[in-house]
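task queued by scheduler; priority normal; single chain, no ligands, no partner chains; default sampling; output format set to structure tokens
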Amino acid sequence: MIPSPMAMLGQVHDATDSVSAALVNEVEEVIDQCVESGIPRSIRSGSFADIGPRRYMEDEHIRIDNLSSHLGSVFKFPNPSAFYGVFDGHGGPDAAGYMRKHALRFIFEDVDFPQTSEVDDVFLEGVENSLRKSFLLADLALADDCSVNSSSGTTALTALIFGRLLMVANAGDCRAVLCRKGEAIDMSEDHRPTHPSERRRVEELGGFIDDGYLNGVLSVSRALGDWDMKHPKGSSPPLIAEPEFQQMVLTEDDEFLIIGCDGIWDVITSQQAVSLVRRGLQRHDDPEQCAKDLVTEAIRRNTFDNLTVIVICFSAPENREQPSPRQRRFKCCSLSPEALYRLRSLLDQNANR
């Protein structure tokens, strides 16, 4: 069994007096390299949902901070691993509720989702292909399930974290926003019929935009379900379930991710949301309270929709009390095989003196 970095460092400090300061410094530098690699030491999140001014709640969401533990030993993923999803229903709650119940099955069981402990180009391509298939399979399943009304649909946004990799898949107008040193970075594009690229695609497939609505009916140009607009299956309707992807390699500058339904983004900009959450984390370090504060602010600004938001934290806020340099070295993530090899070599050299 490989000892932990703390235990190995302890062996160095507890070794014979012949251990030089240079040796200890070299070990600490190795551990510092691990800390600086950008891998989140832990992932934690909070969520909040509110019906808003609507008569019915049609939003659903999924929040899993430890995906490997949730799915069990059958699945092998890079660590840490996490999964989040928001589903903004329309035409009734059927489609969004169906996705909350079955999303994990579609994504991880019904497609050949790649499994490995390392993130590389092959893994990235496999994850994207699997997510695309799962969105399309879920769309078809909504057509075949008699418990789901054919006029019910849902937008869908999912966020996966594997080690340093963040991958967002989106179909609809939910939004994911990354905070990097206080700056908002959009990790998804709102699929509105009025967006130039979406308008071109819709019109090329025989659809039209009327007062901002797809075929005069729907305010989004991508969604799962809505089979009264897509029928018959096998055709190429202007409303599609095909997701778009964005990915990011997380660094120490990346503080948190916000994902939410359009009830938030209709009245709050990406930067305003990031600034509000960042101030909250600096005050109380509670992502769930930050999610609630975002919803409260959207209601105050007279949003007209249901509201759902998830705040996912990667690192501590900048102005929280920082540990001393030596303490900070000890708060490290798992070492890479190369770093472990160097530590073992240093310990072996010391033992042979």
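post-processing summary
- The first helix runs from residue 5 to 14.
- The domain at 44-313 is CATH 3.60.40.10 (Phosphatase 2c; domain 1).
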